[in-house]
Amino acid sequence: MTALVLALIVGALFALGTFLLLRRDLIRVVWGLAIISQAANVYLLAMGGIAAGTFDSVPVLAGHDAGAPETADPVVQALVLTAIVIGFGMTAFALVLSYRVYEEHDTLDVSELGDHEG
Amino acid sequence: MIPMAAVPIGTDAQLVIAPMLIVLATAVATLLLGQRPRARAAVSVAGAVAYAIAVAAIDWYIVLAPDAPGIATYQVGDWPAPFGITLVADGLSAFLLTMVATIGIASFVFSMRVLPELDRRSYYFPLFHFLMLGVTGAFLTGDLFNLFVWFEVMLMASYIFVAYDGGPQHTRAAFWYVALNLLASAVFLLGVGGIYATTGTLNMADLAQRLAEPAAYGIDPGPVVGLLALLLSVFAIKAGLVPFQFWIPTAYRAAPPQVTALLAGATKKVGIYAIIRLSFTVFAGAQLGVALEIPGVGVVVSGDSPLAFMGAALFVMAAASILVGGLGAVGRDSLEGVFAYSSIGQVGFIAIPVAIAATTASPDLRHLGILAALIYALNHTLAKGLLFLSVGAVRTATGTSRLADLGGLARRSPPLAIAFFVAALSLVGIPPLSGFFGKFLVFDAAARAETVPVLVLLLVGSLLTIAYATRTWNRSFWGVQSPAVEDATPDSVQVAVLLGLAAAILAVGVGFEPVYRFADAAATAALDSEAYVDAVSPTDIESLDSSGGGHS
Fold it and tell me: What is the pLDDT of residues B293-336, one digit of tens each?
């Protein structure tokens, strides 16, 4: 059940991110990128899986008498923390950059920015 | 970790992390010295020299010395692999580090000269060192997620460099570049997450070990072929292989030329390195029946490891790169435009022997393919680095780099012309320059693989190289001096850097024997997964004593 919900959420986030990424407004593009990187983070969390807690994998559970609860993989959580920090920094940078683009071009419309090659 | 008597200070394990620490310390120190331009410049120079010494020490004590171990590892924080992050320096890492250090130093000296006084107060030098840090970390890490982190470090610095001049075209180019790479980072995470879910580890040595014996670890390695394809697309974006080449012309034109030299010479090679390291050292051992039919053509790609798939994909991408890059370069009307497209084509030349190595069954040919790719990459770094730096020198001297505004530079500045000429000839592949051996080995690998279409493709690519090199030379260096050129006064230090690189190209060609031995060691290291796994020696998680810990 959890797997299905997670899969649906990841899929919906990627779809929404892609949709925003393809908009003409630069700010929406940044939003799209932010949502796609969050979708990747949720996916990464889901990849750790949920396993029955054992005393071997989680030593602190040895103090619990009535059976160990389910546990999530801590490795992916550490990875996601790093990825969130990087994604946060890059989103901030992309927002500042889009403001600079606006200052230089007086527009945030992707099709008006054009793609000239010199 | 065996202490080596051969290393004068510390152990060979400590030597592995030395270049990273040096460049990190330099970056932070230059960041703090923002208000003191002189001290900052002095720290920058000291850091660059120390970095070069550390890389040279790795080359000698770990790879080239007669009693060298060939590979050394550093377990960060003394956490045993696969729990902690492992840094690994072997022949492949050392070869690429040396290459990047060479172009890095040249670009650094050039930057010192080209920047106006005001810019020395800005964040140019800290960024420069952070870019080098990202590249160095990517070459040394032995952990897949850590590779992602170093990619990001490298990219963050390069984003700002693309936007550095702050004009309309620079900010626009930077935005496309950032958007594309953020997307690529998300794809990288997808690949990393999938590989972790499939194999239960991200340590490269542990991965290689588990994939070689999936049954012993109870994993089903099937999904890694697709995940490797995801990673290949990320690395192809960094390397600029078609169909992921579209960002290169705009970004390379927007960044300052001395940084473009570094982007073409160093960050591109990180993409190539990651492809070689992951395909050959890590994933080559996986025994997987691969049979994919390419829709429409009816050709079936098959083999018994993910390499077959990688090789087929690389062939297509490399072939398209050679054609797109070569044809694009012939029609450009500015120096950096020509060289940006030329970079796309040249990466195709590097990827072809990698593809040959991935698809062949013969160990000798596989070794030759990697060797050819490395020698070609070395030539590309030196020659293309020189050419991009010469764009900077021409711009400093004349204020333009448009072919229409140039002409007759050869008479105005013969030393600049000589350096440019050497690099152009090396790109074409004329003996005795380094480019000759690169081209020769690539053709040799293609001939031994007995693939006529590939040979024809390489010939066409070489002809296109001759065409655009000649055209660029004729338009900018020969002919009547244009008004911009008549008033030009090239900077002597800049020209000296160019001549130094030209001398390096000549030296690599004339004294090719030691370079060949180094590249040979690098290719051997790239293919020797067992030595890599032994050196890292990941702890077997199942074998850990679960009653230990003492926290009960």
Answer: 666 566 667 777 888 888 889 999 999 999 999 999 998 999 99
For A54-89, how does the pLDDT look when each residue is reduced to its tens digit (9 = 90+)?
666 666 666 666 666 677 788 888 999 999 999 999
Quote the pTM value.
Answer: 0.93
Find the domain containing B456 and state its range.
12-532
- Whether B133 is covered by a domain: the verdict is yes
Best CA proximity match to B357, nearest among B288, B412, B281, B453 = B281
Alpha-carbon torsion B152, B130, B123, B159, what sign? negative
| Residue written as token pair 């008004």 | B483
Please name the member of B148, B152, B334 whose beta carbon is closest to the beta carbon of A118.
Answer: B334
DSSP helix, strand, coil percent of chain B (3-state; round to 5): 75, 5, 20
Q: Coil, strand or helix: which one is B1?
A: coil
Class of the domain covering A2-54+68-109? mainly alpha
Measured CA to CA, the distance from residue B238 to residue B264 in angstroms comes to: 10
The structural domains of chain A, with segments of one domain joined by +, span: 2-54+68-109
- Residue A33 Cα, gap to closest chain B Cα (Å): 7
Residue B213: inside a domain? yes
Beta carbons of B186 and A40 less than 8 Å apart: yes
Taking an 8 Å cut-off on Cβ atoms, the answer to whether B337 and A117 are in contact is: yes
- Which amino acid, residue B157? A
DSSP assignments along B4-48, one per residue: PTTSSSS-HHHHHHHHHHHHHHHHHHHHHTTT-HHHHHHHHHHHH
Cβ within 8 Å, pair A105-B253: no
